[in-house]
Each structure stands twice: as C-alpha cells, then as structure tokens.
Amino acid sequence: xxxxxxxxxxxxxxxxxxxxxxxxxxxxxxxxxxxxxxxxxxxxxxxxxxxxxxxxxxxxxxxxxxxxxxxxxxxxxxxxxxxxxxxxxxxxxxxxxxxxxxxxxxxxxxxxxxxxxxxxxxxxxxxxxxxxxxxxxxxxxxxxxxxxxxxxxxxxxxxxxxxxxxxxxxxxxxxxxxxxxxxxxxxxxxxxxxxxxxxxxxxxxxxxxxxxxxxxxxxxxxxxxxxxxxxxxxxx
Length: 236
Known about the structure:
Layout: E1 7-8, E2 11-12, H1 13-42, H2 47-56, H3 58-86, H4 91-122, H5 127-131, H6 133-171, H7 177-199, H8 209-212, H9 214-225
Helix pairs in contact: 1-3, 1-9, 2-6, 3-4, 4-6, 6-7, 7-9
C-alpha cells in the first residue's frame, strides 16, 4: 500500500481529489439545471402539449440535453479521478469501482439518446403530416418517458458503485471512514429504491431520498480538504 501522498502516474492524490470534487460540483449544477429548470417547463402529461412546448422552445430543450451531456462527461472524469485517489487503498477494487461508474455513465448516455431522438423527430419538417398526429404523440410520449425509465434503471449500477467507493474510503488511511460509511448507505439506498420500484411498487420508499444527500457531503470534503493531502517526500 502506498502513502496518501503518492502519485499514480503523473497525477498526485491532491490533484485527483480536487479534480473529482470539481467534477462533482459541475454535475451538481448541470443536472439540476436540466431536471428542475429546463424540462419541467417543457414536459407535460399530455404528449400534444409537450410537442408544442418543445417545438416552440427547441433551444431550451437542446440546452437541457447538453446540460445532461455535460453531466455524464464530468462523470467520466470523476470516475478516473476517484480511481487515482483511491488506488493506495486497493488498486484492484479501485479499478472495479471505476468500471461500475463508467458502466452507469454509458447506460445514462444511452438513455439520453431518447431526448436526442425527440429533438430529431420534431426538427423534421412536416413530421406530423408524414407519420400522423396520433403516431407522433405516441412516439414522443414513449421517448420522453424512456429517458427517466432507462436512467432510473442505471441508478442500480450507480448504487453499487457508491457501495464499492464507500468500502474503498473506509479502507483508506487518508480519508475519514465516516464518509465511506455514508457512501455505502447512499449506495444501498439507491439500489433499494430502484429495485423497490419493480418489486414493491405500492410501498413508499421516498424516505430513502435523505440518504442520497450523503454523496454530496463527500464532494464537499474533496473540495474543502482534498487539497491538503500531502505530497510524497523525495525519499518516498
């Protein structure tokens, strides 16, 4: 096991911690912007209204798509940075943890293509006349709901990532174990909530949302204290 100040390749653990923290901070801005500021103004329970909203606000809809794209690109950087940060705890487990986050990101990006398809469909001239109004409504309704469904399913993989990440933090000697415990709890909450939607649809698991806040707490530690990780001395 190497020291907490060790370098992995040409990146120090201090730089890895700050990179991961800044990546998570970017995601904390772009994802809510899309989910709470952009899409709620466009998406309606009525497919026809949704089509009208998106058609008249294509720029806003595209902004939401690119905000989510930025989120998942940042996810890749965070996966890489966390891998480097936690290699001293366990190289093999750190690699596995990174792979789970990358798999989650790939699944989320695949889900995002549903929104891209909606944009492409509605950007096609005279599309309603070509496919018919009812068919267009059905296609848009399916695609818009498919993103949330597919992305939600990917959170099971993300939850497993958080559990593994928490175990790594607990095993490390340079990050407080309390944050690792919090990450494990958050990961189990994600898995429980999403699996529960399939097997316990009548049970209200909304209380688990509180556990989701434990991940941003780790982000704050990375931003506030990650830069304090000591660099190795020349003798190391």
